[in-house]
Write a structure and sequence with these properties.
- It contains 17 helices and 25 strands.
- By secondary structure, the protein is an alpha/beta fold.
- The protein folds into three domains: 3-264, Glutamine Phosphoribosylpyrophosphate, subunit 1, domain 1, CATH 3.60.20; 273-460, 3-Layer(aba) Sandwich (Rossmann fold); 461-604, Glucose-6-phosphate isomerase like protein, domain 1 (Rossmann fold, 3-Layer(aba) Sandwich).
- The strands form four sheets. The protein has an eight-stranded antiparallel beta sheet with strand order 3-2-4-1-10-9-11-15, covered by helices on one side. A seven-stranded antiparallel beta sheet has the order 5-6-7-8-12-13-14, with helices on one face.
- The longest helix has 19 residues, at 581-599.
- Residues 154-167 have low confidence and may be disordered.
- The structure holds 2-deoxy-2-amino glucitol-6-phosphate.
- Residues 320-323, 367-369, 372, 375, 418-420, 498, 502, 613-614 line the site of 2-deoxy-2-amino glucitol-6-phosphate.
């Protein structure tokens, strides 16, 4: 997804600030970058395709106190320098960056072209500066009386001394935003106005409150080195700041919104790679601590939510990608441990389920980023039916966290790699805890999970990762790879496929072991790598016999299991943690996927075509 960072304040190295901040948003996935700095000579813009990591911040030392930068994950328009953000108006004075999609851009483009506006890109974004420019012309005609301007846009209270000519720009941005359809977050600046203006409907924007000014960014790592104090911009809101004062308002009505200043709990160091070559390996290894942190929940809240699930008339679990696999595993947790029926649906499919929903229903939305558009959409559908929403998220202050009726945080710390690892095991830990609470055995669940956390802590040692690396070495040339599981290991088989696909680009598929003989077993040839996820549970013999079927057809069997078995050509030992087996079984897969990517020369942190948070539908 696109990354945005803007700064306005007393510092004069705004260009360096935003370039360094943009580099800390690289994890979001992108293909081009751009920077705009307001200087004595006007707004200086540089943009290009390629990696921001290749850009030297010292190239932006020209004194500036107002700047913004953007990484583009192409949606509309190819990857070209012209399509990189920022985009500017005809007069070159209005400069804008966008995260999201302006769905009605073609209609707006035609309307603006008819008024003489000229476009240089094929993006949806470029209509924004031109429309703001058009609205400023209208604004100039519309508000003759300065008193009306000041009334309409005055900065109230002691923190606001913004110069009076500026409100036209902010009002014009507001009017333009009211014309847009779709999910978007924009940040805009004007050559003649010392303001940073931002607005969002669907794509996250967060304000960083620094001693010397304000940041506006897509995510907190962009400015965490300058401040850990934030204010959240909500959907349908706008913010205007000159670096000294700040005004939040309702995008539609212009009514002022009060915002608390909130302290971010994790440090800048936590969001960096440290001694690891890649975020992905760092975050896999952080599972030595993150699962215990996930288990450390407010007992009363867990009990309350368990009761809410038991009382609900229909509980639906929704998520996307890896988060969806946590939801699928929870179906088994609730069934096997609590004997309670819940329904899983991929968030993107939930639209077709809404007919079941009623005010007594409960939706459980699971998301690492808390910004996934399909999951937010599912929540909106549930709320439109009067159902309550429980969010299980990692990112503090995220949209999903703020829009839910109840929120549980997995406290895994920042997850930067596109491939979700520690968030998945944290999500499953919380869901497993709830399953135990549903049968009044929360202490037993906590004990099970803390024992699992300790076992993972022991498991994740250099010898273990080195052994898995040797297996990656052995299968790295494979073009196809299959994973089977049963029960809660079936969702982990599907998750294994996602992990391996998305970072190594190897074709991997996960199956329920029992499904092999209904078709997929036709795919097995001599030497085809097949991974069997096994636990010491009621379905162990079933999945082992599935592995025997695969071996009989030439499959090279890699067993991930608490105990060795003759059918395994390679055995990756995992602790026997009973009902938490899915949590430990996926960790060797994460490590295998990581080494497959590295050995195949891929960047596991930023895989092609993917973004860390899919904030567009
Ligand atoms: C997982 O490795 C992928 N990056 C992707 O499937 C991800 O899980 C999915 O987009 C959901 O993201 P979320 O948890 O932030 O909602």
């Amino acid at each position: 997804m696109c990354g945005i960072i803007g700064y306005v304040g007393r510092r004069t190295d705004a260009g360096v600030l935003v370039v360094e901040g943009l580099k800390r948003l690289e994890y979001r996935g992108y293909d081009s970058w751009g920077v705009a700095c307001k200087t004595e000579e006007g707004i200086v813009i540089r943009k290009d395709v390629g990696k921001i990591s290749a850009v030297n911040p010292s190239d932006f030392l020209q004194p500036s106190s107002l700047a913004m930068a953007h990484t583009r994950w192409a949606t509309h328009g190819g990857v070209t320098p012209e399509n990189a953000h920022p985009h500017v108006s005809c007069d070159g004075k209005v400069v804008v960056v966008l995260n999201g999609i302006i769905e009605n851009f073609e209609e707006l483009r035609a309307e603006l072209a008819a008024k003489g506006h000229r476009f240089v890109s094929t993006t949806d974004t470029e209509v924004i500066p031109h429309l703001i420019e058009e609205e400023m012309k209208n604004e100039g005609q519309r508000t003759e009386d300065l008193g009306q301007r000041e009334k309409e846009n005055a900065f109230p209270g002691p923190r606001s001394q913004v110069p009076s000519p500026s409100p036209d720009f902010a009002a014009a941005v507001r009017r333009a935003c009211l014309r847009f359809e779709g999910r978007f977050g924009i940040v805009a600046m004007h050559a003649d106005v010392p303001l940073l203006v931002a607005a969002r409907t669907g794509s996250p924007l967060i304000v960083g409150v620094a001693e010397d000014g304000y940041f506006i960014a897509s995510d907190t790592p962009a400015f965490i080195r300058s401040t850990a104090t934030v204010q959240y911009l909500d959907d349908g809101e706008m913010v205007v700041t000159d670096g000294q004062s700040i005004l939040f308002s309702d995008l539609r009505t212009g009514e002022e919104r009060e915002k608390r200043e909130i302290a971010i709990t994790w440090s800048a160091a936590e969001s960096q790679k440290g001694e690891y070559e890649h975020y992905m390996l760092k975050e896999i290894m952080e599972q030595k601590q993150s699962i215990a942190r996930a288990v450390n929940q407010d007992i009363d809240q867990i009990e309350t939510l368990a009761r809410a699930i038991l009382d609900a008339q229909g509980t639906f679990l929704v998520g996307c990608g890896t988060a969806a696999k946590a939801c699928m595993a929870a179906e088994y947790f609730f069934s096997v441990i609590a004997g309670h029926h819940v329904n899983f649906a991929p968030a993107s499919e939930f639209k077709l389920y809404h007919r079941f929903l009623k005010p007594e229903s409960l939706l459980i939305a699971v998301s690492q980023s808390g910004e996934t558009a399909d999951t937010l959409e599912a929540m909106k559908i549930a709320k439109s039916k009067g159902a309550k929403v429980l969010a299980i998220v990692n990112a503090e202050g995220s949209s999903i966290a703020r829009e839910a009726d109840y929120t549980l945080h997995i406290n895994a710390g920042p997850e930067r790699a596109v491939a979700s690892t520690k968030a998945l095991t944290g999500q499953m830990a919380v869901l497993l805890l709830i399953a135990y609470a549903m049968i009044g055995k929360l202490p037993k669940g906590r004990t099970r999970l803390l024992e699992t956390a300790a076992a993972i802590n022991d498991m994740l040692n250099p010898r273990y990762t080195e052994f898995i690396e040797t297996i990656a070495e052995r299968i790295q040339q494979s073009s196809d790879l299959y994973i089977i599981g049963k029960g809660w290991n079936y969702p982990m088989a599907l998750e294994s496929a996602i992990k391996i696909q998305e970072v190594s680009y190897v074709h991997a598929e996960g199956f329920a072991g029992g499904e092999l003989k209904h078709g997929p077993i036709a795919l097995i040839e001599k030497g085809t790598p097949c991974i069997a996820l096994v636990g010491n549970d009621e379905v162990r013999t079933d999945i082992v016999s599935n592995a025997i079927e695969l071996k009989a057809r030439g499959g090279f069997i890699i067993g991930i299991a608490p105990a060795r078995n003759d059918v395994f050509d390679e055995w990756i030992k995992v602790p026997d943690v009973d009902t938490a087996q899915a949590i430990v079984n996926i960790i060797p897969i994460q490590i295998l996927a990581y080494f497959l990517a590295v050995k195949r020369g891929k960047d596991p942190d930023m895989p092609r075509n993917l973004a860390k948070s899919v904030t567009v539908k």
